Amino acid sequence: MRIAVSCTEESTKKMASPSFGRAPFFYLAESEEYTGYFVPNTQNKQAVQGAGIQSAQTILREEAEVLITGHCGPKAFRVLTEGGVRIFQGEPKRTVDETLKDFFDNKLVELKSADVEGHWV
Q1: In sequence order, what are the residues at sequence separation of 6 or more whose Cβ sits closer than 8 angstroms to the Cβ of residue 86?
Q2: Measured by CB atoms within 10 angstroms of the end CB, which terminus of the chain is less buried, N or C?
Q3: Residue 84 CB: number of other CB atoms within 10 A?
């Protein structure tokens, strides 16, 4: 299973990002081993609009089955769920490693709808 985590820096020891579309990076982990790679989200971080949809397309291209992020807007939520990605809300102020552990310990809540309005920052 490939798991995407929105993150603030290129380190699993740094904070997961509270936002999805404008997260600086995504960490793609392979299963419970936590090993993976980073994908920069530079083009969407500064986008005037469409950051959520474009970020969702990045997650789909990377073939993630799960996304863990702080918040997800309606357009990104729709693109992701139509692509078969399950979305979980990470806890605030947790590192990427801690967030992955929370997921595998079944401590995260799966989102059934967007939890913020569009253009949330």
Answers
A1: 65, 66, 67, 110
A2: C
A3: 10
Identify the CA nearest to 67 among candidates 50, 47, 81, 49. 81
The pTM (predicted TM-score) of the whole model is: 0.90
Mention every residue, 6+ apart, whose C-beta is less than 8 A from residue 112: none
Q: Is the pLDDT assigned to residue 82 strictly greater than 70? A: yes
pLDDT digits 0-9 by tens, 26-68: 999 987 677 899 999 977 555 555 688 899 999 999 999 999 9
| Surface-to-core class of residue 21, CB atoms within 10 Å of its CB (0-12 exposed, 13-18 middle, 19+ buried) | buried
